[in-house]
């Protein structure tokens, strides 16, 4: 709990103050009654006190009582000052001037679109105004504010708890997947990811516990936000008392207004200083190098203060940039002023995220290396220079092949304009675009493509069907996905057994929705507990599924370390899935020890998160009755049936569409109607190493969890399938048609 430390101090300050007051009131400074002192049978004798002498007056021990008082008074002053500064800062934000007219507009209209420059106070202030104005009716109702990003939800909640001077998790909390920091009885303001609010429709279809819902960062147009807006549009007529506020950066506002029958748009005029835009004269082949060079150019030629914000596409790039910055800064040593490097990306551990908000010390320059998280979701004070290579990592899905990829693509013009704006918040700024002016005008799209048009819709379609939406084509959406994308989603969930042949959702389908993870994983767990050929391996399946949620930060970084660690822990495992299982189990067997992690180059904090995810998944399995079924099965299981085989079969049941077959020219995906796509084993996979080392015969079938496209199409997290007949055994309806037809 990030706040607990501070509150401890506050509590102590308060207690100390009480003590001080009591002492002053009694006027008997030398007779403080200490509770429990009557138990001591000796009296403190002043004569017997040890005396210290010091040659140097200053280093003498201070007179405890008065020294203590002074320190205490100072601490109190500082705390008071801090709270005062926070309140002053709140009042200085652009939305503050519009507080009363905003509240008036909200009272008058059921739906209000609020548009304002990033940093004007929409996310942190609006919800507080609603609380202050009594919209929660003394805590009877809650206020929800959705965020597309986990990092934004947690960091904003912490900030607002601080501003309201309450403990995070009590009155103000956050809820993100696998991490719920709210208390049902006391929380009145909740920041949560849009995906979490979407899930709440399953238990509370009219969201009755909320008085106001703020859909924040709506311009991001994530899949969950779009679907939420559709569902909310549906319930508004039944919940006349519910207030809906859609908050957005300057793009897209009119579209939201149209969608909600001409809802009014409230503009919060922002202050924005002019930003000089610079372009490169030629396209840069290596934008990362160019960005690093630009950082030093700025640092050595531009005055202080003035922090730099660099937009990169992901963790790997950020780490690479950080490393080369540190190396160069090290070489330059005292020739340059100190650089403080602060990375921020979704997977950055929470305790390291606050570094970006810490004020930059005098004579230093902060360089924030961020993903597009800093485009609108987070406002970092003090930024004067923006470096923008103009790329973003984006999910892209091709329904015809069923392939989903994270691709690095050029951003839209709206995005790069937003990014440039980050430089003009404190004063006039500069933005260095690492692409050409020509490219800006001729190559960039105007607006980013909404996620709903470029992603796999299976999960959302299943959720909507479980909520009773039967006519998907009729469901209100800002942008409607095409028929191929919808039919592919239906086909996928049918393959998983979530729909029957009439197209209605099955019990299994409902169960899959209950899991806080993709339906495919839900299917794996269901199979692991119940299928005749698999049951009894639920414990192991849950562990692997939990591990697969955190693979990005599991092993300590460097590649050689990674290899070493694998051979170190386990020797020989046959798949990445078994590697994850063995890693977790070895850790568990060592009592979840931290030193085991250090010895084996595994990230302790990641494993702690995995353990937490695992517990939650296990509880979910328990509620659904799967644990009981699994235990029954475990009693009668045939011990010759190796657990590993049962695990593999469980994964086949959940991911039949993620299987590649070995052909004459390597692996090809299966299941796609118009022939497979060439795919290779990713070098980080255990399979890759065992193939290289043993020259072993490559397995004929490989199940993969993800495809990533870099120099070519790579399979990550691979599980070999030793026997072809397992495919027919586990998913006959799929492989008897699509699979064998094709092959
Ligand atoms: O949502 P919007 O972009 O309109 O602004 P906001 O996120 O509410 O930010 C208002 C102010 O709070 C900005 O000056 C931020 O820098 C500050 N803030 C902060 O200092 N620390 C945070 N964790 C979040 C916001
Ligand atoms: Mg915001």
TrEMBL record:
Q: Which GO terms describe its biological process?
A: generation of catalytic spliceosome for first transesterification step; snoRNA splicing
The EC number(s) this enzyme carries: 3.6.4.13
Entry's Gene Ontology molecular function annotations: ATP binding; hydrolase activity; RNA binding; RNA helicase activity
Q: Which domain of life is it from?
A: Eukaryota
Q: Which UniProt keywords apply?
A: ATP-binding, Hydrolase, mRNA processing, mRNA splicing, Nucleotide-binding, Nucleus
Compartments where located: Nucleus
Broadest EC class assigned to this enzyme: hydrolase
Gene Ontology CC entries for this record? catalytic step 2 spliceosome; U2-type catalytic step 1 spliceosome
Q: What is this protein called?
A: RNA helicase
Which organism does this sequence originate in? Lachancea lanzarotensis
Lineage here is: Eukaryota, Fungi, Dikarya, Ascomycota, Saccharomycotina
Q: Report where the shown chain sits in the full-length sequence: first residue, last residue, total length.
A: 167 to 909 of 909
